[in-house]
């Protein structure tokens, strides 16, 4: 449930603190556990996002909260990194590129979500958004931790997302802003769905013994 | 596995709606127009409107030009959501060409019932209620402002929602012995409303922490009493004030509190008239009135965390009490007491012999009698 997810998230955040020298001794084991924890985090966030998106889309009002809503994606709204990618391209990604894409995407998404937090109307929404941003921050840290434990450099740019997002043109009217918000949530959903597949793939690179143990423990 | 790449529309907006994101009073009417961009091969007859996802009747449409369609909305209701009603212009196949958010509501009402309190004279927290209507359908911003009377400069409170939705906390830079003017401004897209001004001196609205170290203990063997002791709140120890205390207590499985009101300035009190062998929950609170000689009442603190204690229950022997035997015992006991008194005076040694020893023997006798009966 929720408390298990929070526990996993905390473990992930804590395990990836660079200050702990003990992790260097058993890097392979450390990476395996980190990958599993990152995978678990994405599933937890996926679950959290369902509630957040539901509340937020209700706040935007119909037609945004209708299940089949699919508005045009205007060119000006390309600021949000897209999760969708050619299948062969995706399969061929190196571990480094795969992790880096995830790291960059969530760092950007976190920025935009934080801006949203400042503008949104109701107290309940602000509270949910703040909670989600904290969890998402944990995911970024977790991915960074996996990259470090595998010896990959973190993608260029600030390690922690800057307070202000890279200046994309602000929506010229309130309706277009609602559409931007809708697409932000949609991309977040798609990314979390894709990340689960990314980390599943990465898990296979880890010594099987570790993975098997974990699966048995979880009753799969 | 992955959804197909989404088609991206050309750079220019397909259509323009006017008015864009208007603010309107409830009950007003509106005529909106949708003009298709010249790059798009759409005509007025290819368009339709929806409001919050529901299609608007064609009877309310009018073509104002080859690529401009208008819609007439009459007697608008308050916005369905505070983010604005979604008025959308569609092409025949359902695609969205443009949208406009309608903010329909009422101007705010004067906020009312401003009450404030200061914790240990260090800060000030105020809360208020929105005006009687409450529902304006528009997002309403509240700003609490305050200034020292006769000093001119307005200050704005920054920390909101500390004691509920309509509250604000002023953490520092407050002066004592001077009246403050406090008011709340409510504003939304349709206007501003200002509450009445409340005037107060910080010293008149002081509250404090609940008393610390609340101890509840038995009073010897008394079955119907408990003794309550506490410390006066440490935060106010340096200040000149009188404290009033109140105690409330209840039986463990009841929700009815009994209040002891006339505790005055003491830090201890004895509860009487209680049930024997019962667990009681006790709480204490403090009112720091007359701080620095202020005439006002002061504000009661929160109740202390409940402390539990139980009244004793006397032991009754299962073997039954024989009244006659009891009487005999009393006479015997009296005689024995006299005997022991004489022994003490005239005999040396055996100084442990006394009525107390006899009583202990009686207790031992009862206990072993009881155990024998139980076996």
TrEMBL record, chain A:
Belongs to the IL-6 superfamily. In complex with CRLF1, forms a heterodimeric neurotropic cytokine that plays a crucial role during neuronal development. Also stimulates B-cells. Binds to and activates the ILST/gp130 receptor. SUPFAM superfamilies: 4-helical cytokines (SSF47266). It comes from Loxia leucoptera (White-winged crossbill). GO terms for cellular component: CNTFR-CLCF1 complex; CRLF-CLCF1 complex; extracellular space. Forms a heteromeric complex with cardiotrophin-like cytokine CRLF1/CLF-1; the CRLF1-CLCF1 complex is a ligand for the ciliary neurotrophic factor receptor/CNTFR. The CRLF1-CLCF1 heterodimer binds SORL1 (via N-terminal ectodomain); within this complex, the interaction is mediated predominantly by the CRLF1 moiety. The tripartite signaling complex formed by CRLF1, CLCF1 and CNTFR also binds SORL1. GO terms for molecular function: cytokine activity. GO terms for biological process: cell surface receptor signaling pathway via JAK-STAT; positive regulation of B cell proliferation. Keywords: Cytokine, Glycoprotein, Secreted, Signal. The gene is Clcf1. It is found in: Secreted. InterPro entries: 4_helix_cytokine-like_core (IPR009079), PRF/CT (IPR010681). Residues 1-22 form the signal peptide. This is Cardiotrophin-like cytokine factor 1.
UniProtKB/TrEMBL annotation, chain B:
Its main location: membrane. One of its GO terms (molecular function) is cytokine receptor activity. Residues 4-89 form the Ig-like domain. Residues 306-328 are annotated as: Disordered. CDD domains: FN3. It is found in: Membrane; Secreted. Keywords: Disulfide bond, Glycoprotein, Immunoglobulin domain, Membrane, Phosphoprotein, Receptor, Repeat, Secreted, Signal, Transmembrane, Transmembrane helix. Residues 110-205, 210-314 form the Fibronectin type-III domain. It is a single-pass type I membrane protein. GO terms for cellular component: CRLF-CLCF1 complex; external side of plasma membrane. Pfam families: EpoR_lig-bind, fn3. Gene3D superfamilies: Immunoglobulins. GO terms for biological process: negative regulation of neuron apoptotic process. Belongs to the type I cytokine receptor family. Type 3 subfamily. This is Cytokine receptor-like factor 1. It comes from Loxia leucoptera. The gene is Crlf1.
């Amino acid at each position: 449930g929720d408390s298990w997810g929070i526990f996993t998230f905390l473990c992930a955040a804590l395990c990836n603190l660079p200050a702990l020298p003990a992790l260097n001794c058993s890097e392979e084991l450390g990476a395996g556990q980190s990958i599993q924890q990152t995978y678990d985090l994405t599933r937890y966030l996926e679950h959290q996002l369902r509630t957040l998106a539901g509340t937020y889309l209700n706040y935007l009002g119909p037609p945004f909260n209708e299940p089949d809503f699919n508005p045009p994606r205007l060119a000006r709204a390309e600021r949000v990194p897209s999760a969708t990618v050619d299948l062969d391209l995706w399969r061929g990604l190196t571990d480094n590129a795969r992790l880096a894409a995830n790291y960059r995407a969530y760092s950007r998404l976190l920025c935009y979500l934080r801006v949203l937090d400042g503008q949104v109307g109701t107290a309940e929404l602000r509270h949910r958004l703040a909670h989600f941003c904290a969890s998402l921050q944990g995911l970024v840290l977790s991915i960074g931790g996996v990259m470090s434990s595998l010896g990959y450099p973190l993608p260029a740019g600030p390690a922690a997302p800057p307070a202000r997002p890279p200046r994309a043109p602000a929506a010229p009217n309130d309706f277009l802003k609602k559409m931007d918000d809708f697409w932000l949530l949609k991309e977040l959903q798609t990314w979390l769905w894709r990340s689960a597949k990314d980390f599943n793939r990465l898990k296979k690179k880890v010594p099987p013994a570790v993975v098997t143990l974990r699966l048995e423990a979880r009753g799969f | 596995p992955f959804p197909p790449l989404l088609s991206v529309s050309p750079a220019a907006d397909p259509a323009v709606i006017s008015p864009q994101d208007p603010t309107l009073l409830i009950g007003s009417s509106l005529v909106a127009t949708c003009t298709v961009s010249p790059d798009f091969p759409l005509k007025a007859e290819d368009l339709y409107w929806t409001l919050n996802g529901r299609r608007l009747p064609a009877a309310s449409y009018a073509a104002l030009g080859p690529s401009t369609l208008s819609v007439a909305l009459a007697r608008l209701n308050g916005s369905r959501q505070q983010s604005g009603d979604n008025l959308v212009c569609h092409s025949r196949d359902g695609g969205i060409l443009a949208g406009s958010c309608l903010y329909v509501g009422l101007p705010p009402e004067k906020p009312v019932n401003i009450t404030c309190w200061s914790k240990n004279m260090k800060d000030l927290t105020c809360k208020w209620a929105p005006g009687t209507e409450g529902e304006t359908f528009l997002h309403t911003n509240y700003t609490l402002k305050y200034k020292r009377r006769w000093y001119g400069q307005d200050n704005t409170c920054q920390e909101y929602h500390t004691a509920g939705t309509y509250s604000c906390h002023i953490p520092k830079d407050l002066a004592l012995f001077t009246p403050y003017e406090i008011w709340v401004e409510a504003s939304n897209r349709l206007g501003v409303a200002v509450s009445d001004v409340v005037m107060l001196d910080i010293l008149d609205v002081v509250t404090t922490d609940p008393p610390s170290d609340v101890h509840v203990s038995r009073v010897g063997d008394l079955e119907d009493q408990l003794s309550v002791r506490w410390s006066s709140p440490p935060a106010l120890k340096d200040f000149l004030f009188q404290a009033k205390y109140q105690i409330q207590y209840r039986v463990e499985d009841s929700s009815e509190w009994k209040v002891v009101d006339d505790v005055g300035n003491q830090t201890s009190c004895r509860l009487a008239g209680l049930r024997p062998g019962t667990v009681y929950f006790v709480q204490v609170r403090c009112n720091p009135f007359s701080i620095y000689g202020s005439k006002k009442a002061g504000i009661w603190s929160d109740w202390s965390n409940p402390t539990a204690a139980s009244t004793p229950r006397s032991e009754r022997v299962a073997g039954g009490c024989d009244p006659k035997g009891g009487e005999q015992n009393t006479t015997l006991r009296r005689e024995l007491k006299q005997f022991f008194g004489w022994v003490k005076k005239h005999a040396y040694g055996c100084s442990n012999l006394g009525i107390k020893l006899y009583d202990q023997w009686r207790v031992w006798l009862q206990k072993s009698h009881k155990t024998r009966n139980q076996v």
